[in-house]
Amino acid sequence: MDERKLVLLHTNDIHSHFERMPRIAEALRQLRSKHEASHPIVIDCGDHMDRMRPETEGSGGLANIAVLNETGYDMVVPGNNEGLTLTPAQLGLAYGERQGYTVVCGNLLDPDTGEPPEWMEPFRIFHRNGLRVGVIGLTAFYPDFYSLLGWNIVDPIETAGRLTELLRPQVHVLVVVSHLGINQDKAMAERIRGIDIIIGSHTHHLLEQPLLHEGTYIAAAGCYGRYVGELEFGYDMDAGVLRLHSGACRDTDGFPPSLILESLIRHEEETSRKRLEQAVATLAGPIGINWGAESGLGNLLASGLRRWTDAEIGIVNAGQVLQGLEAGAVTKYRLLEICPSPINPCLVRLRGEEIRVALEEALLDEFIGKTIKGFGFRGKELGTLCVSGVRVEYAADAEPYRKIRSIEVNGEPLAPHRVYKVGTIDMFTFGIGYLSLGRGETVDYYLPEFIRDVLEKQLCDENEIRLSSVTRWFTV
Questions:
Q1: Among residues 237, 272, 307, which one ends one of the domains?
Q2: 388-to-210, 315, 373, 422 alpha-carbon distances in Å
Q3: Domains of the chain: total
Q4: Per-residue model confidence as pLDDT tens digits over 326-355
Q5: How far apart are CA 195 and CA 125, in angstroms?
Q6: Which of 163, 308, 366, 376 is at a distance of 20 to 30 A from 267, taking alpha carbons?
Q7: pLDDT of amino acid 260
Q8: Which residues pair with 386 in a beta bridge?
Q9: 433-450 pLDDT, tens per residue?
Q10: Around Cβ 81, how many Cβ atoms within 10 Å?
Q11: Lowest mean pLDDT: which of 177-186, 196-205, 354-363, 373-382?
Q12: How far apart are CA 270 and CA 285, in angstroms?
């Protein structure tokens, strides 16, 4: 039997955990050495970048590119944290500094040409041990957001079907690198014949050994750089059959850190921090935050969202702001520390009764202390709701969902069936946190700005700072 070996090494959803990257680099170095004769294909499946970290924020992602260059990948797929938190121009600038690897994504297109930009390819064919290995890249489907940034994103599973039909006759093995999530990966395996392997990401799932689902192997290596995936296959050239020899996720804690990468990251951290030490505002006095009750910074952000979106009401959860601000200069670095989430402002049209439900929930400990992971949220607890344009009277000791005695919107009683324009955050529209706030009739998203950009603008307005101390919630 003429069997050829194929080795795939993969990482995903590192989210700028730079502290893990030296161990990842050493793990990949040792695994490449172990399989040297087979010339492994080394892949990152997306969300390597995360603008919550100063190294990424201060460098526009170039710190991540420097790490990818030094680590030694063959290809990367942009995840939503790359594609939705950087503009196409910023992303092109960052990936323009790549060395030795290809950026691959088949469903993210330039709207003018209908093709990927010049720095990205829809697929790649690798040659290993006499095997032609076709690799398709796909990223998560968020059309409302991508269109605002100037992209045309197309359905990933339809794209996978089209590219599979194109590539299957040309290659021995067909791989899809998917930044779509485990459910989409399974759906792809069920609907599309001809995909041999799916390497997944996006939902941070860990498959310690690959699944065999509808004839397709599905693999994934968790998140935050804790694991590196190692897949070893044998391909029978006579029978045209792919067999899994071994598949595992290697714990990077079992590898020493790369000293070269540690040094590189220290340099990138220092350089990025210097860029972020630019002062953006000066405060005459401190402004605090309280996740359990209204506070100055929460009110300031709610008012900023209302103004940014030209809404009647501003609403945001207090947990978006992690710390208060001291008197004196406020830098971009400090704003990143207190408001790290890559969350965008948005305009939602909500009925009064939906707003009331959310305000009632904002008085309950089960919502205030609720922990949330993902969907852009980089805080610890959901926190109560901070508002602008709203006055609420409530009885703290009353039973849940019957605490509020009155709600006024800009001096008028809240009308249950009237539709209000509400400036808030995109996280709620995903059905996270205060669920009724995600039931808007229509939504307008504001990209590429984050809510910390809204807060920065507010901190430069002395009148808005003064108004942030005005009470909006009253006990009766």
A1: 272
A2: 50, 7, 26, 10
A3: 2
A4: 999 999 999 999 999 999 999 999 999 999
A5: 14
A6: 376
A7: 97
A8: 316
A9: 999 999 988 789 999 999
A10: 26
A11: 373-382
A12: 29
CA 354/CA 331 separation, integer angstroms = 37
Q: Find out whether the peptide bond into 342 is cis, omega within 30 degrees of 0.
A: no
| pLDDT the model gives residue 326 | 96
Is 76 a residue whose pLDDT tops 90? yes
Nearest-CA neighbor of 175 among 125, 211, 213? Answer: 125
Return the H-helix or E-strand segment holding 75: strand 75-76
Q: What is the pLDDT of residue 184?
A: 98
d(CA 209, CA 241): 20
- Region 383-392 average pLDDT: 98
- Going by the DSSP 8-state scheme, the letter that residue 103 receives in this structure is E
User: How many residues can be counted in the chain?
Assistant: 476
**DSSP helix/strand/coil, 47:** coil
The answer to whether residues 284 and 231 belong to one domain is: no
- Residues 122-141, mean pLDDT to the nearest whole number: 97
**Domain that includes residue 421, residue range:** 279-475
Q: Per the structure block, which two tokens stand in for 10?
A: 């993969």
User: Are 235 and 309 in the same domain?
Assistant: no
Strands (E), 157-239: 173-179, 197-200, 206-213, 216-221, 227-236
Last residue of a domain, one of 236, 252, 272: 272
206 lies in the same domain as 325:
no
Same domain? 263 vs 359: no
Q: Do residues 317 and 466 share a domain?
A: yes
